[in-house]
Design a protein that fits this description.
Blueprint lengths: L6 E2 L6 E7 L4 E7 L9 E4 L2 H17 L4 E7 L6 H7 L5 E5 L1 H11 L10 H10 L3 E3 L5 H34 L1 H7 L5 H9 L3 H7 L1 H11 L6 H12 L8 H35 L3
Parallel strand pairs: 2-5, 5-6
Antiparallel strand pairs: 1-7, 2-3, 3-4, 6-7
Helix pairs in contact: 3-4, 5-6, 5-11, 6-10, 8-10, 9-10
Length: 283
């Protein structure tokens, strides 16, 4: 939730609060009028028909009670709310979001269980909105929406790459623990090059100290050379890593290297589109 998102102050006395507890396959809705008149929480689903029924139900309730404004409120949530956001953004209504910590505090104060109970949550969300603890929900459109999606995709890709790098380091440690100590960071170009091409002590020894030093010097652009290569060769000769089952380890290492390279290419592609997208966003 952005700190720059405008906070919703006291609601219009003619506003209907529609609180929604978001779920994966189903949502729970709840209506409350300013005078406290409400209806029991009810379920609706991620379909056009169900969304339409939900919207018309809210409109009828507002009309019956002479309410001119409808405020839809949600907890800050993940992707499960996206289809509903997309549907409601085109409706003559206000969308607001609340911090889940506020609902937890309200539950604590009222003696309601802070554990997940879908049918109770919409009422608590309505309480938080009524107290003015809500932020206007800003749903980006056009180039801004595209940039947001690209940014989210980049974050997911980097998370996958980081997980693969951590797994790769664990495997290298098993078969060649000294390599991890000498090279430190597996994500550097030089370390990654060696893991890709010479992932075992035997392959480093077969390459030899001179060829290894030349390769490291070339990849690191002169920053790493004979001293580090000599340390790696010495470590490879006296390696305490696991020998049995090494082929299986090497097969998985090869897979992880390919996965990391794929994520690197994808991040580069995303960042290129992000740079282009930034030029399209009005400031």
């Amino acid at each position: 939730m952005s700190n720059n998102t405008p906070k919703v102050k006291k609601l219009n006395r003619k506003a209907l609060i529609v609180a929604i507890d978001i779920g994966k396959s189903a949502h729970y809705g709840y209506f409350r009028a300013p005078d406290g008149t409400d209806i029991k929480p009810f379920v609706f689903y991620n379909t056009q028909k169900s969304f339409d029924q939900f919207w018309h139900k809210a409109r009828r309730f507002a009309k019956t009670h002479g309410l001119k404004q409808i405020v839809f409120g949600f907890e800050s949530t993940g992707p499960y709310a996206e289809p509903l956001f997309n549907y409601l953004r085109g409706k003559p209504a206000q969308l607001v979001q609340i911090n889940p910590m506020h609902t937890k505090r309200i539950k604590d104060l009222t003696g309601n269980s802070p554990h997940k109970t879908d049918k109770k949550d919409p009422r608590v969300i309505a309480d938080v909105i009524g107290l003015g603890h809500a932020l206007t929900l800003v749903v980006p459109e056009g180039p801004s929406a595209q940039l947001r999606r690209l940014t989210q995709a980049r974050e997911r890709s980097i998370k996958k790459r980081t997980a693969a790098l951590n797994q790769l380091q664990h495997l290298i440690f098993i078969i060649f623990p000294e390599f991890v100590d000498i090279m430190k960071n597996m994500s550097t170009k030089t370390a990654f090059y060696l893991i890709k091409n010479y992932p075992s002590p035997e392959k480093l020894l077969a390459l030899g100290p001179r060829a290894l030093a030349a390769a490291m010097k070339n990849i690191s652009r002169g920053r790493i050379g004979h001293k580090r290569a000599k340390a790696l060769i010495k470590a490879a000769r006296h390696c305490v890593g696991v020998k049995h089952g090494q082929k299986a380890f090497l097969l998985e290492i090869e897979h992880l290297v390919s996965e990391i390279e794929a994520q690197n290419r994808f991040v580069d592609k995303l960042e290129k589109q992000m740079r282009h997208g930034l030029q399209q966003v009005p400031y």
